[in-house]
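Milestone M4 deliverable, item 7.
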Amino acid sequence: MKSAVKAITPLFVAAVGVLGAGASPAAAADVLLPHPGPDGLVWVPESTGDGGVVSGGVSERLPTVLTVACEGGGSAAVTMEGQDDVQVAEFTVNCPKGSTGVGSASLDPGVVPRGSFSVAVDTSTQDIRWSLTVTQPE
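Output delivered:
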């Protein structure tokens, strides 16, 4: 068993080294939305075209903030639903070429019911790059 652990350890170290190499300052400067920190429930650092996310853990005691940033020429229509399939937020973000457009919805405590939720991003073209965060500031 010890020899198996010794064989796996260099592979693990090599994989971590490769993953760590991608986090360069140049890559960080190209992030549309930064990591949301401890208030974050969801962070999608980057996606392209239509997409979305499903998650859980929302508290109805806290406000919820959904933020989407995008670029590429066109727009992104954003909707958020609670686990009861009731739409709680809807907005559109202009996604310019060469710069970043940002849109958000701030929802009072209780608007998003406790439990799971979904966010859909419907882009006007499949080459629009976007990022999203869902936070619950305390």
